[in-house]
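[Backbone geometry]
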Amino acid sequence: MELTLLGTGAPGGLPLPDCPCAACATALGPAARAATALLVDGVLLLDLTPGAAFAAARAGHSLGGVRQVLLSHPHDGPAVEVPAGLPQPGRVADGRELALLTGHRVRTVALDAPGSGYEVTGPDGERLLYLPPGGAPAGLGEGNGAAQGHGARSPYEMVVADVLGRPDGLARLRAAGAVGPTTDVIAVHIGHEAPPGPELTRRLAAAGARAVPDGSTLVIGAYEDVPDVPRRTLVLGGARSGKSVEAERRLEAFPEVLYVATGGTRNGDTEWARRVSVHRERRPGSWRTTETCDLVPLLADDGPPLLVDCLSLWLTHVMDEVKAWDDDEWAGGGERELRRRVVELADAVRATRRTVVAVSNEVGSGIVPATASGRRYRDELGRLNTLFAAECEHVLLVVAGQALALRG
């Protein structure tokens, strides 16, 4: 089954007319995107958008063979003119199946937002799932690989969805077995909220997805371009740099993440409680939280992805345990014990089979601490970050909310 993306943008396209934002200003040439529309094997058109016939011609295709036009979501603004020769657009009611004479079958997938998702099965059995902007699947049966009642038993070959706007939808599909390691996830409905340039590619790759230019033709079932999601990532940054948001973003498209909070509750500290509350409210509802600094057993166990926030608080905890703030204790064995614990953690990261995203502070680029204990902490955190980063496929430095790739 062959898919041509006549457009990959949000309903208003990219750039938006008269919008001065950075994303719209840089959306030129291949980065410009028309509203999303999909042409399947030249016979099925999913979403009719302005200029669809011209877009098909630019991609080397014609709409002359289209036998069915289906709409996935309500369209704002004036009605789109139907090109001559195309059937009138329609929608398939939830729970219904449409069979085309060409051998394609289309089933609707119930959503948690207005609109319809479409599961398309080709004559040879390949399966494509297309979701509208802002939509995520509802009523998924875990482990059956499809919407409840649809009877599929394996992951889709391709999913085309609003990955940036609804990463939780991708997480639901993964939890249900509908997205697997070989599923080609294509991000569409891309608007000016998306980061411009290489940042878009990097952010989508972290979710196991990719974006393609308008006019791209893809063979469903070809897996060579599926991004390989890194298993170990370290996110560094200064205070309020956005490092925790960046770390959470890298796992928001995955279900059942275990959030490991190393800071504790700090009973009586209302300002710290507010910080913890903000972090909790930001996390997806499917994530679980554990408050612990005992990281090595977690890394040794099998299980869902870990998000560790953060290593700098873990180091504070361990330095407290080895009495690193007392010069005599430090010289009498505390330094040696701390280094042993840090090496033990790095070894556990190297051996883990879990997906891990860890956050740590970058404190060595600022003012030299005025106290010996402050300088000791700064130095030990630098050593910890260096050893941890050496075991990670991806290392990011976040500055002013912008993620810079140091590795991977």
